Amino acid sequence: MNHVFKAIIFDLDGTLVDSASIVERVMRKWCHEKNISFSKVETSIHSSRAEDTISAIAPELDSKAEAAKIEALERKELQGLCEIKGASALLKQLPRERWAVATSSITDTAIAKLKAVAMPIPNTLIGADKVRSGKPDPEAYLKASEQLGFKPEDCLVFEDSETGVKSALNAHCAVVIIGDNCELRHPNILGRVGSFEEIDLHIRGNTIEIRT
User: Fold this and answer.
1) Which of 39, 48, 127, 179 stands 20 to 30 A from 103 (CA)?
2) Three-state DSSP class for 190?
3) Is 192 exposed, middle or buried (0-12, 13-18, 19+ CB in 10 A)?
4) Pairing of β 99-102 and β 7-10
5) What separation in angstroms does the CA of 111 have from each of 107, 131, 137, 173?
6) Do residues 208 and 6 lie in contact, with contact meaning Cβ atoms separated by under 8 Å?
7) What pLDDT sits at residue 85?
8) What is the pLDDT of residue 155?
9) CB 117 within 8 A of CB 81
10) Tell me, what's the pLDDT at 48?
11) pTM above the 0.85 mark?
């Protein structure tokens, strides 16, 4: 099917980059240090802000301070980080002012991850430290669309997790799901692909045509 938009917003972890093993390794270390069962964080670490995960499972801790430690550890553990197939090639087709990243990583970590896989840094990057409420709250995608200068309804989001997809849908964006980690069904979910190699993108004047 063909779909036409004015801008594209990408999640980062699990969408543009495959950071699952890195995130898990860092969180296992943190859980061991804090004597917390990894099973308590396992379902949220790939889709939620570290700050929100910590607040939920260990409210007695300083969630902001602990999240900062976790993010710093991630930036040191980027060896082996790789892109989701086809991501770089697709980004190179897009004008810099027509795409953004909205991520549950903080800005410094997001930039480090993009640099680690030689991806361009977008003009608009909404990190976890730039919002008051993390996904599934729509704030990240609303801010990204606003900074791009387009209505959320005119933006297509690529996401991989249920939490992230809910965030995009709550912002009234259309969504294409990357991978098989989300089974949500919604009229604004336009398709599901294994990687960006399955996406056919064309720039038509002021619009971006996507074929899935």
Assistant:
1) 39
2) strand
3) middle
4) parallel
5) 6, 17, 22, 24
6) yes
7) 97
8) 98
9) yes
10) 86
11) yes
